[in-house]
Amino acid sequence: MKKIEKHDQDVIRLHNKQMILEIIKKRRPISRAEITKITKLSPTSVGRIVGELCEQGLVRETALTSVGVGRKAIMLDIDPQAVFTFGVDIGKKVIKFGVMEFSGKLLHEERVEHTALKATPEATAALISETINVIIANKKLDKSRIIGIGIGVPGVIDHDRGIVQYSSTLGWRNIPFAQFIQDKLHILTVIDNDLKVKILAEYLLGSAQGSRKTALIELGTGVGSSLIIDGDIFRGGSNSAGELGHTTLDPNGNMCECGKRGCLQTYIDESAILHEANRIKETADMQQLFAAAQNEENWAQDIISRTSLYIGITINNIVCMYNPDAVILCGDLVENYSEIVPLIEEQCGQVVWEPFRDTFKILTSELKSKSIVVGAAMLVMNNYVDKS
Amino acid sequence: MKKIEKHDQDVIRLHNKQMILEIIKKRRPISRAEITKITKLSPTSVGRIVGELCEQGLVRETALTSVGVGRKAIMLDIDPQAVFTFGVDIGKKVIKFGVMEFSGKLLHEERVEHTALKATPEATAALISETINVIIANKKLDKSRIIGIGIGVPGVIDHDRGIVQYSSTLGWRNIPFAQFIQDKLHILTVIDNDLKVKILAEYLLGSAQGSRKTALIELGTGVGSSLIIDGDIFRGGSNSAGELGHTTLDPNGNMCECGKRGCLQTYIDESAILHEANRIKETADMQQLFAAAQNEENWAQDIISRTSLYIGITINNIVCMYNPDAVILCGDLVENYSEIVPLIEEQCGQVVWEPFRDTFKILTSELKSKSIVVGAAMLVMNNYVDKS
């Protein structure tokens, strides 16, 4: 009982604070009286919350402005550079970095090569920490204004406790990675699944703005999905919702590395597609496959057409289960070979259950290769306001 | 902008009201001062909200009680019979009715035979309205205390607008069914998908109490699913999340009535199972199939084992996508032939992706045949407090 009440109060308090901050961001500059009028909260509550926001440095008082006959009010504004966050994207071959200011703008970006499966968690943490230290020094960032580092990691991530539970891309199991970084830099660090931060970025600043229930499907070296509902990342019971790659596409199908039969990833991830291609003709990479299809080689066109069919079926399954109003297709496959998108859309006309056909739109990523960096940085920004 | 702010305020106001009502229900009787202490809301706010609740008749003042040295406080309590709701479950052959009191208890139950596909929406509405009128008269219910009727309907339901968009069980399309009832009885009527109200019932009063993210799988004449997260029914963009029956199990599989190939329902719904059985031996119904299996007839055991495998795969797909902490198996198949449950659990040990194997428990329904009536009645109860 106690716990529920405490939780309820916190939710309300936080909700009011977020609401006021959003109002200030959107209507800057604005007076306390106007906020009171808009929110219908008591002047005391508004005063207290604004006080907190000012104390945190998120909001500042500006010059007096006339708001009525003869009266002058102190106006409130945000300082776009009040705080900074870092967004980090740990990929298979590259680690990307971004510095984001309070307003949501990326001030600086950087990338460092690495080899995921050869890097120990300790070495990766050292590389990330050093790079961040160099950026802070080069860009002369005020360290006291850096409120945190967000990191998008491929795999099953315990977001609350900052642990990489399992990442096949990195070959890590049960690594308290957030703590590794925090111990080195003494900056709050949060980690989350890469596709969950990616969809947050698209929702807040990318192609899913205005969508209320958005599903994201990642198609490339891996296969995965995520969902965001009214701005809340859908996490499931242990932050593992959306593990699309190991849903079963065909009970009698291909063996998967996981030991099960017919997992979706054995049909549509890059290695599965190339495996299929190499049965017919030596194919080094996806570029060669798509070039062969362009060249009107039948076998290549068939493989791409079959891949589109399976992706269409995947979209049907996602739409039946999540009933989103938009589906974002992301990942190397659709970003590097966008000619596949109309083929997928065509398949959807056949394989999506009829009552759902007009209930969603298919989008592609707007932020593309930046999306994980942006989402990871925003994760901290949101989190910071939440926790303060 | 305006809309967002209005929404935010409403959410907070409603949240506070629900919180206070829950506190009174759980700690009855309780004083305003104690509520103020627990909620940390201002005495003015608490007074106003309690006033609203009293005015609605949801809460009443009781005798003075000593709470400290020489002081006496007016205590607040709920009247278990302050309000009533009706829950209605429109099934294939039977319409079930229940009268629920404010405390959540079912006062009275009743069932009426009908034949779904032969009943027009108008005739069904007339039958439901007449039955409710008879119950009101016989049970001498105070009509002014009946706050609403909740109806669980199989199909795609526009819950907000009270429209049955599509129901294959009933053969209805775009029927404003809530309005039909409301016009006859002049009592607020809400309708919702049957599995969505079912999971609400199990969450509030059945086997999923204490689970935070629960998935429900219906197995019987139809196949479907629903999800509830921290008490909120997961609806998707157009209240159609969970349409499991038309997810694709096998891209090269059985033709489905919907025109697609390999839909899950063509493998595990009752007619699909019986169709398979009749290939081998004339089988009138499920009872005969399970009797043959009991009798150690191989063909029957094989069919049941294959069904369990497909249900196991379905559980894997649900768990991968939703990551729930509990999965409730419902419907005639598991309720009438519970010997299949251990077979399904055994299959899950094989076909659920390894990282998820220990993340959820498999439950069966506690409320069984009452669950839709209970959930539909609770839907109105929740809704009423929401709207007041």
Automatic annotation (TrEMBL), chains A, B:
Keywords: Carbohydrate metabolism, Kinase, Transferase, Xylose metabolism. It holds the Pfam family ROK. Gene3D superfamilies: 3.30.420.40, Winged helix-like DNA-binding domain superfamily/Winged helix DNA-binding domain. SUPFAM superfamilies: Actin-like ATPase domain, Winged helix' DNA-binding domain. GO terms for molecular function: kinase activity. One of its GO terms (biological process) is D-xylose metabolic process. It comes from the Bacteria. Belongs to the ROK (NagC/XylR) family. Transcriptional repressor of xylose-utilizing enzymes. This is Sugar kinase. It comes from Paenibacillus ferrarius. The lineage of its organism: Bacteria, Bacillati, Bacillota, Bacilli, Bacillales.
